[in-house]
Amino acid sequence: MKNIVILGSTGSIGVNAVKAVKNLGKGWRVLGLAANSNLKALAAQASEVKPAYVSVFDYAAWKQLKASPPRGVKVLPPGVEGLVAMASLKEADIVLNAVTGAVGFAPLLAAIRASKQIALANKEPMVMAGELLMKEARRWSARIIPVDSEPSAIFQCLAGIEPGLYGASVSKIFLTASGGPFYRTKGSLALVKPAQALRHPRWSMGPKITVDSSTLMNKGLEAIEISGLFSLPISKIEVLIHPQSVMHSGVEFKDGSVLAQMSNPDMKLPIQYALTWPGRAKSLAEPLDFFKLSRLDFARPDFRRFPCLELAFYAAGKGGIYPSALNAANEVAVENFISGKLRFTDIAAVVEKTLSACRGDSKERLTLSAAVEADGWAREKAAAVALGIRR
Ligand code: NDP
Ligand code: MG
After folding, report:
1. What are the structural domains of the chain?
2. Ligand minimally distant from the alpha carbon of residue 151
3. Is there an atom of ligand 1 within 6 Å of 34 CB?
4. Is any atom of ligand 1 closer than 6 Å to the C-beta of 37?
5. Phi/psi at 194 (nearest 5 deg)?
């Protein structure tokens, strides 16, 4: 029996993860569900999959949950404590981390230190300190299996190669991006409304990552995540705009051979693979029909029109605490944009101003606590910058 804990179970990845576990059927069980505050969705999931544990982060929601918990279910504490407890449950075989943002850092670290198999959707902690978290995973014999479709594609292309040999074998990573809703938009993006940015042409996802996809920051965050996951320099990562989202990324090896992973764009496939790895099982994703694909297009991204992508590569190049500061500033800016307090183009401005105020340490001296501290500093700085820009 494989026991799965799902952090962020009520979100876009979490809901698909529950479907994937149910699809896998006998021998698979949801052990724990964690959300932020959506008690209604959590209760519905709990009655469907009958977990042994639930938790919610938000204190008011937690008090309500504690007052009338689902029958036979143990309620873990609120806040980070609950997420950490959930991530390190003794009975858990696989921890799926699908919360949004840097809040996933502590539970990810806890799952690593509990030597779990980790299905990782939550990319933000890997942006903050990917290399160090991978080092920690090696130390504790934890396995991190990416869920995000692009890192999953690369992971699948690298199957069979010793992680220590990735650097010597790989000459380039082709990181694909749909281009988001504004890839073909002409003219200024300053007046883009949140509702427009929240309408992704290919994927149905949570609000934060959907906005990140529209600014292309998501691709920058993925590039940094991939660099940490596979210990490859950021200079080996090339972003390809590929509007059909059929090739989910690829690897060019030293001999010039390219392996790419393809499928219809459906997160249920990489989610399930992160659970069944190294095996495979029939998934709920519709198989790819090559005869229905009229064409596959590839183009270079426009770094000037999408400055967030350029800022991410800049932060990655600087190393140290810069990626953590980039991520935190972006989280603050996106929240402000979604709530109508900043314009679309202000997102990059807030990140840029925060990064230019950042006085980072050299790469060698980054520690897990320095990455977390930089996150806190950058949040305050970005909030102040956003306040200055608001009109
Ligand atoms: P959603 O916004 O749809 O869902 C987020 C989930 O996390 C919800 O269950 C939410 O609970 C929960 N959550 C948020 N904050 C907290 C908290 N402080 N404590 C506990 N739970 C919390 O996001 P997505 O599913 O789209 O994305 C999740 C992660 O996966 C992100 O890091 C994203 O970048 C990554 N990802 C997502 C993809 C996708 O297709 N959606 C693709 C690749 C990566 P509640 O419902 O109560 O608010
Ligand atoms: Mg992705």
Report:
1. 2-146 (3.40.50.720), 187-215+304-391 (1.10.1740.10)
2. 2
3. yes
4. yes
5. -50, -40
